[in-house]
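Quick one: co-fold with adenosine monophosphate.
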Amino acid sequence: VIITTKIADVRAHRQRERDMSWGFVPTMGYLHAGHLSLVEKARADNERTAVSIYVNPTQFGPQEDFGAYPRAPEQDLAMLEKAGVHLVFTPGDSTIYPPGFQTTISLRQVSRPLEGASRPGHFDGVATVVAKLFNIVQPDRAYFGQKDAQQVVVLRRMVTDLNFPLDVVVCPTVRESDGLALSSRNAYLSAKERQASTVLYRALKAAEDAFYAGERQADSLRALMSGVVGAESLARLDYVSVAHPDTLVELEVVAEKALLSLAVFFGRTRLIDNVLIDVRNRSR
Ligand code: AMP
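Sure, here it is.
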């Protein structure tokens, strides 16, 4: 495995193996089985796999957890080596944002609701850094988790709008056995909060079950999710949503499909989760 902090090294290696197909998995490190599922899919689909580890400061708000975000570089590199990754890019801030940097990629609509409303500027930071990483790595395919559903919508839109010559591949959310979606931020939870954190998946399941039992009113599904979260004393609801999976516009009625999503605080820890529902998948 080649591990480098330098853009020139990534470019040289990519150029040397330009005839290989390259898969790319951008991450913020503190890797877990969710990240590794993306790496495995990238390895299965491509001859070469690159992973970036970069905690991007511009996608964190001023009151958010950039400084506290968990980091374990040695462990991450050991995991990636074991997973058979060919190239790991671990840039520093001055490599990604050299003096004079002043360009932002901003999506007008899909970045506004949900995470964008709770975290102003978040998706400008994500879109800009991912565009830069795409230009540096020049992958044939890039892999993202359904866990961050709005991120997928935003990045798909960006790839189309800006003609990036790559395919976006979305991988299913990897969960703990009790339903909690794996996240680097789960490390912040106390033992009691960890128990309470299953409330996200329980809320989504309650709404999903109601949908497959025939409930089509989005407000009823939202109320179900809010009710489940409201019953958990350690949880504080940020938002619940029943939205169109592609536009992220809130629905009144679920005619065909919807993205159920929510964000919940446990103390200062903020967790998100989602599921897709679709009338065509009746049996669950
Ligand atoms: P992060 O390091 O949190 O920026 O995540 C890097 C990539 O891993 C993103 O595409 C995430 O959506 C994806 N990811 C994070 N957690 C999970 C999970 N539990 N299951 C699947 N993908 C995930």
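If it helps, The beta strands are 2-4, 22-27, 48-53, 87-89, 141-145, 167-171, 236-243, 257-266, 269-278.
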